[in-house]
Amino acid sequence: MNIGGDTLQSSSKNQAVNHHSAVKTNSSIDASGYTYVHEHLHIDLSGVKGSLDCRLNQYDLIVDELHHLYTLGVRNIVEMTNRYMGRNPAFMLNLMRDTRINIIASTGYYKQPFFPPRFNELSVQAIANDMIAEIEIGIDGTKLKAGIIAEIGSSLGQITEDEKKVFAAAARAHLATGCPISTHTTLSTMGREQLALLAGFGVPPEHIAIGHCDLRDNLDTIIPLLEAGAWVQFDTIGKNNYYPDSGRIAMLQKITQCGLLDRVMLSQDITRRSHLKHNGGNGFDYLLTVFVPMLLDAGFSQVQIDQMLRNNPARFFQHSP
């Protein structure tokens, strides 16, 4: 296992891509297959978190896992890493070339501890302009364009003033481009407040996905979000140290009984080297090879599973640029 060591990108398949004509570079969804709506393929939070495990950049291991996902029917991955989280557009373009999986890149700012120096000097419009440029022109001089404003986040039990500024900028960027918004809630807190904030800035709920809603018993938040017309992500599947998958399934059963499954989307939020299968983790296929059989055993139909993994994400992105 190679959790600590960087995988060298010296082979021809790992060198920076110079020509991307055969690679999708926008937010289009391949609706023929499944979509993971909240993942990280290249992320580096090691500085803030003080652990090399939080630098996910092992190219060959990720390629192997994405090849397997493709055989399982996955065609799209929404990559939530934004500019101050260790985003790497060349890495993503290479992955698309080498795996045939469409990757939708993100623009935005994460949450308070991860904002850049002098963030408080940036105006709301300046932040929005950065997002708009990455959506319309490209990321870091590449042809890769952001297809979602994400993951914009809030702190545990609060939305700080700086975080509110990001939400305001995200709303302006959405209104200028039509790009959907996906959020980070810390331990499933502040989801309803996030929706209220974005709605107050003029963003229609159908363009908002509230993330990490499955880290605790959370139906008192989830049901009102869905009833308001927003999308909900069960996107930490397999992270049983936070909350058991059995609890996630129980909440999904209640949502189904309420007739609200048509705005639920699924993912795993892999962020660490130790999450990769080669390094002893669940791997990216856990959602399909472990959680989906659990859903079937709990009485969910294949139609309902396809709805959450294929149809709902396609609908969420259907109005994106």
Automatic annotation (TrEMBL):
Keywords assigned by UniProt, alphabetized: Hydrolase, Metal-binding
Residues given in the record as a divalent metal cation 2 binding sites: E151, H184, H212
InterPro entries from the UniProt entry: Metal_Hydrolase, Phosphotriesterase
GO molecular-function terms, A-Z: hydrolase activity; zinc ion binding
Any Pfam family the entry gives: PTE
Polar residues bias: start-end ranges: 7-23
Gene3D superfamilies assigned to the protein according to its UniProt record, in alphabetical order: Metal-dependent hydrolases (3.20.20.140)
Annotated positions binding a divalent metal cation 1: H38, H40, E151, D269
Swiss-Prot/TrEMBL cofactor(s): a divalent metal cation
Domain of life according to the entry: Bacteria
Keyword Metal-binding recorded: yes
Region (Disordered): 1-23
PROSITE patterns membership: PHOSPHOTRIESTERASE_2
Protein name: Phosphotriesterase-related protein
Cofactor note: Binds 2 divalent metal cations per subunit.
Organism (species): Xenorhabdus koppenhoeferi
Recorded family membership: Belongs to the metallo-dependent hydrolases superfamily. Phosphotriesterase family.
